[in-house]
């Protein structure tokens, strides 16, 4: 079986239309953006809209964050009952300050007993498979033993971003650590971090025993990265094709703009086009600018 290729949960990017595109174009599984377990229990309309999905997006995981095992377990139960996703993912790796200061996300790597309890309790509160997405440590790597213990709490899958939380998204990704963990883990391990090209992905999949990779910003910059990894042909003018797809599914201008800016950032002499996109408030206008840029 081909190693799993997952689309990472990305705030402001992994909307329903985007997830659907990636499911139809090479991703084995997609995830909602991270949502608050407390907000789920409070019935926040905005939060519920972020995790709502269509059947064609399956298999899909819903990612939640929090610091209280009871709240997280109850939120997981509510998600299971009302949405019936294919997986519930617990975020233990988000490095954003407003999340960290509440003791959530990657802050749980500083409170490892609580992290283990959360994984244990949530995995037993639902029948849906539970996964954890985390990092190698908070301010420094914390070694294999904790992650092997985490993998033995009852969760079904472990995704590791190979950087510490304070590194955010810069610096080297410790793929050696990811592969060493995968060799000893009792459950599948998915590698994450720094995957920008199809070649990056193929290289990592050829080394060690990881069960797959999760791609985030590499997919934002190149929405056809999953198809390229699989050796599948891609359409002409792929940037335009992608934007037309999500716009036809009703995607808002802000998401269209974010993708357009990322897809063009590595092209030569595109400053003028990116400036036009940044100042635009209309999706069709952005599409025309992108079309002009890629056909110059």
Radius of gyration: 19 Å
Mean pLDDT: 95
Q: What is the CATH third-level topology name of the largest domain? A: TIM Barrel
Counting structural domains, the number is 2
What is the CATH top level name of the largest domain?
Alpha Beta
Helical segment tally? 15
Write the CATH architecture name of the largest domain: Alpha-Beta Barrel
Ends distance: 41 Å
User: How much of the sequence is in beta strands?
Assistant: 5-15%
| Helix vs. strand class | alpha/beta
Helix content: 40-55%
CATH superfamily of the largest domain: Aldolase class I
* Helix and strand pattern: EHEEHHEHEHHEHEHEHEHHHHHH
Low-confidence parts lasting 5 or more residues at pLDDT below 50? Answer: none
How many beta strands in the DSSP annotation? 9
Principal-axes shape call: globular
Which features characterize this protein?
2 domains; 15 helices; 45% helix; 9 strands; TIM Barrel; 296 residues
Task: Write up this protein.
The protein is globular and about 55 Å long. Strands 1, 2, 3, 4, 5, 6, 7, 8 and 9 form a nine-stranded parallel β-sheet that branches. The protein has two domains: 4-229, Alpha-Beta Barrel (TIM Barrel); 238-294, no CATH class. It is an alpha/beta fold. The termini are far apart. The protein has 15 helices and nine strands. The chain has helices at 16-24, 37-42, 45-51, 69-82, 97-100, 112-125, 144-150, 175-184, 198-205, 217-221, 225-229, 238-248, 253-264, 271-279, 283-294, and strands spanning 4-7, 30-31, 35-36, 60-65, 87-92, 130-137, 157-164, 189-192, 212-215. Helix content is 45%, strand content 15%. Strand 8, helix 9 and strand 9 (212-215) form a beta-alpha-beta unit.
């Amino acid at each position: 079986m081909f190693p799993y290729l997952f689309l990472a949960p990305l705030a402001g990017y992994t909307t329903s239309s985007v997830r659907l595109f990636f499911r139809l174009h090479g991703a084995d599984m997609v995830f909602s953006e991270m949502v608050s377990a407390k907000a789920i229990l409070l019935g926040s309309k905005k939060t519920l809209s972020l995790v709502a999905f269509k059947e064609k997006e399956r298999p899909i995981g819903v990612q939640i964050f929090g610091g209280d095992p009871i709240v997280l377990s109850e939120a997981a139960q509510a998600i299971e009952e009302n949405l019936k996703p294919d997986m519930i993912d617990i975020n233990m790796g988000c490095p954003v300050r407003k999340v960290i200061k509440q003791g959530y996300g990657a802050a749980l790597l500083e409170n490892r007993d609580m992290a283990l309890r959360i994984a244990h309790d949530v995995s037993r509160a639902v029948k849906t498979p539970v996964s954890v997405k985390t990092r190698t440590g908070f301010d420094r790597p914390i070694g294999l033993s904790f992650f092997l213990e985490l993998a033995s709490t009852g969760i079904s899958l472990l995704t590791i971003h190979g950087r510490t939380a304070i590194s955010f998204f810069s610096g080297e990704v410790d793929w050696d650590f990811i592969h060493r963990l995968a060799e000893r883990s009792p459950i599948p391990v998915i590698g994450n971090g720094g995957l920008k090209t199809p070649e990056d992905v193929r290289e990592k999949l050829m080394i060690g025993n990881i069960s797959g990779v999760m791609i985030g910003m590499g997919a934002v910059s190149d929405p056809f990265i999953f198809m390229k990894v699989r050796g599948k042909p891609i359409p002409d003018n792929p940037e335009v094709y992608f934007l037309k797809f999500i716009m036809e599914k009703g995607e808002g201008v802000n998401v269209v703009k974010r993708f357009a800016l990322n897809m063009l950032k590595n092209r030569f002499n595109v400053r003028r086009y990116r400036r036009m996109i940044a100042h635009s408030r209309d999706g069709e206008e952005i599409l025309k600018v992108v079309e002009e840029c890629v056909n110059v």
